[in-house]
Amino acid sequence: MKLTLTNVTKKFDQQTIIDDASFTFEKGKIYGLLGRNGSGKTTLFNCISRNLPLDGGQIAFDEEGVSRQNYENTDVGFVYATSHLPGFLTGYEFVKFFIEVNQARIQGIQDPSVYLLEAGIEEKDHHRLLRDYSYGMHNKVQMLVTMMVHADVLLLDEPLTSFDVVAAHEMKKLIIAQKENSVVIFSTHILQLAQDLCDEIVLLHDGKLTSISAERIHDANFEEEIIALLSTNSEKQQMVSKTVVPNEAGE
């Protein structure tokens, strides 16, 4: 399974955010998407998940030589930087509802408590209303239900920034387990996190996607190299950062 982006372009008004970008992501790898604020990471995720239309190019799922452009948005799991969960339900009720709605896609265990415990939600919190959950707990539940369906493509937008050390460790294990079934891409500003988790680093800079060789991820001067690459064309980057772009505020 591959996710193929070919000459993808996305504009807002007269500002080009993604500029004729091409890249192929493969199942079995975790890709870290790095870029400066306003570079278009969340916009790219919204294009892949079909929340935003393209202004040019195409995005396709490629499997066994068959290319599929008209995939469903349910084929893409998207963990947003800010979760949107129904506060009037308990954690248990929400996961139970999610299992029922996605019955055909969730194999094996059907007990919501098992999943909540796996995500680090303690049993005493299973029957609390989601509106009373902390920000980090919200993100745990959001990540949990997204991963339960084993979507072909899994997009994680700044997934671990709200977690403490223990919770982040638990979530890392869940993310690593996903690459067996999904193309996994996550955006982050934390270079150490990308180095710990990723099989490949992809830069989104000046509207283009560029791969950084896996062999270089753990080089002693890797951080300096990334900073240098993302510092080029800073005047253009500042213009993009000042542009008001939907869903980009949290990048």
From TrEMBL:
UniProt keyword terms in alphabetical order: ATP-binding, Nucleotide-binding, Transport
Cited SUPFAM superfamilies: P-loop containing nucleoside triphosphate hydrolases
Record-level Gene Ontology MF annotations: ATP binding; ATP hydrolysis activity
Pfam family, one: ABC_tran
Organism: Latilactobacillus fuchuensis
Residues covered by the ABC transporter domain: 3-231
Classification via InterPro entries: AAA+_ATPase, ABC_transporter-like_ATP-bd, ABC_Transporter_VariousFunc, P-loop_NTPase
Top-level taxon in the UniProt lineage: Bacteria
Cell membrane keyword on record: no
Official protein name in the record: ABC transporter domain-containing protein
Alphabetical list of SMART domains matching this protein: AAA
